[in-house]
Amino acid sequence: MISLESDIDSAINCANFSVNSSTAKLRHAPTAKLSALLDLLEPGGIELRSLVIRSTSVRKKVWRRLGLMLQDHPRLESLTFHRLSRSEWHIIDALANVLEKNTVIKELRLSSGSYVNHKIPAMLDSIRHNPKSALVRFGLIGTNTNAFNDGNAATTCLARYLYEKNAKLEAVDLSMNRIGDSVSNMILRSLAGNRCLLELNLAWNNIGINGLDDFPEVLAANSTLRSLCLKNNFITNEGVSLITSGLARNATLQRLDLSCNPFDETGISELASGLKLNTGLRFLTLDGLHLDPSLNPALLALFHSGNHLHEVSLLQVWLEPQTVKDIISVLATERRGTKVRITAISANDVAEYVETIRKNWILDGASLDFSEDRQWLLMTGKDGQVMFELEYATM
What we know:
By secondary structure, the chain is α/β, with parallel strands linked by helices.
């Protein structure tokens, strides 16, 4: 990987530019620097796999040249444009033309730019109209614009594309766009007929209960989605109930992130009950929840047998030491191979957990591996199989 940051001269002159796995990163690059890189990308020159451009100040004609290069570059598979200015819309126009014919680019990410309002529909239409498009990963992140207002062409176009039978996108990242409830519903509804999307990130999008109205029906109809991130939204206990109802009718979703949402122990109990009817979910992330420490035993229901979770993350969740001990007890006696991630208040807490494990469960050939440096506990049964794994971070 070659990093082209504020000054790219040394990188351009580097003789060790890898042809097979090279990445160029431009940050605050003026016209002359981007032009120099484009000279190296001419036929017979270096062949990039990934190009990242951040906060540049480049003339229109150079953007046109970059667009022409992208049309013909035989190996470039990943493109990222970060924080381009309003005056640099030209490259987005050029991208629309490129994507209509390109058969190589697999990933496109646009983040923190004010240019997206009226540019995204043309780009998505280009992808839709290209039967040989290789694009499978698309990100529109932190735009801080009204690009996803209800009824906006960008929203309608993306939802329509995801619903079409010939859709190819496998991963979509729409995090930090403040899309709200109505647009969330529109995007989620498109998944009911989708047969290709594996990952969807809707974090930091102001999604509340009304944004999950169709969630149960969507999960019941969808059989391809493997990972869904809904962290840092406005999902309350009622929203968790809708999610749980969907999980009860779905066997293919494997990862769910509900971190930093305003639900409490009632929502945790809903999850625990609903997961008994779910056979697919393996990884559940609940970091940053504000739970009443006196009611933390409600968490225990998540760890009792009856669900198929392999890993539960509770980082930055206030857990009383006794609650952690109770969780360890359940893991040691009822589950096999479960990993739990927690935040311990102090090193003394961790020492107490280790002593509790050694006193109560290291028997019949079981063993405990403890690494203070790695902040990791691993309990192994006499058969050599992992009984449980505890990863922690100290405050």
